[in-house]
Automatic annotation (TrEMBL):
Residue ranges annotated for the HTH luxR-type domain, each copy included: 146-211
Source taxon at top rank: Bacteria
Modified residues (4-aspartylphosphate): D55
CDD domains membership: LuxR_C_like, REC_NarL-like
SUPFAM superfamilies: C-terminal effector domain of the bipartite response regulators, CheY-like
Name under which the protein is recorded: LuxR family two component transcriptional regulator
Keyword Cell division: no
Keywords: DNA-binding, Phosphoprotein, Transcription, Transcription regulation
Claim: Nucleus is one of the keywords in the record: no
Response regulatory domain span: 4-121
Cross-referenced SMART domains: HTH_LUXR, REC
Example GO biological process: regulation of DNA-templated transcription
Lineage of the organism: Bacteria, Bacillati, Actinomycetota, Actinomycetes, Pseudonocardiales
Amino acid sequence: MTISVFLLDDHEIVRRGIAQLLESEDDIRIVGEAGTAAQALARIPAARPDVAILDVRLPDGEGVSVCRDIRSTVDPPPTCLMLTSFSDDEALFGAIMAGASGYLLKQVAGIDLVGAVRTLAAGGSLLDPKATALVLERLRRGDEPADPRYETLSPQERRILDLIADGMTNRQIGAELFLAEKTIKNYVSSLLHKLGYTRRTEAAVYASERRRQTGR
């Protein structure tokens, strides 16, 4: 059986390297590529891959959001393998919540990546059972709200969301965090996309409600 794979990474050289590695195998075929979250969401439904390899950090969002979206909208949904350059507990938590079946660092050896694709295509999982257990324990204790949308936000985006709830403008938030107003605008656009909103007032209401429910 040939395993069809879709690649999402904002670095073309990385995509080319992974594609060349995987297509050197007789049983693996690349059926599509994307450099942004928006491109991936538009192309994956038509490509219908068995496995989607998704970069965690993207210029217009995060691979975790793409994983969650395609797992809920594509039928049958592809198995998702998250790739990241950094070990990040929050990203791992978000990946598990989004329904990913694997999570690997980009420093992984080529032979191990090939093996990972085959394992996931066969219905296996590459998630550490201990990590999965910790996620379930966090949910049981209520340390974090069981909201996969919130889990996809980076720590900086969460801080900005709180400041939006406080009624601060982009300029005021930039002054508070010592960042350019344009940078804050980009963060706001990203967090609105992840939360599924189009207006910052919706995000402010969401953040205020979350505060009320969690006491934070």
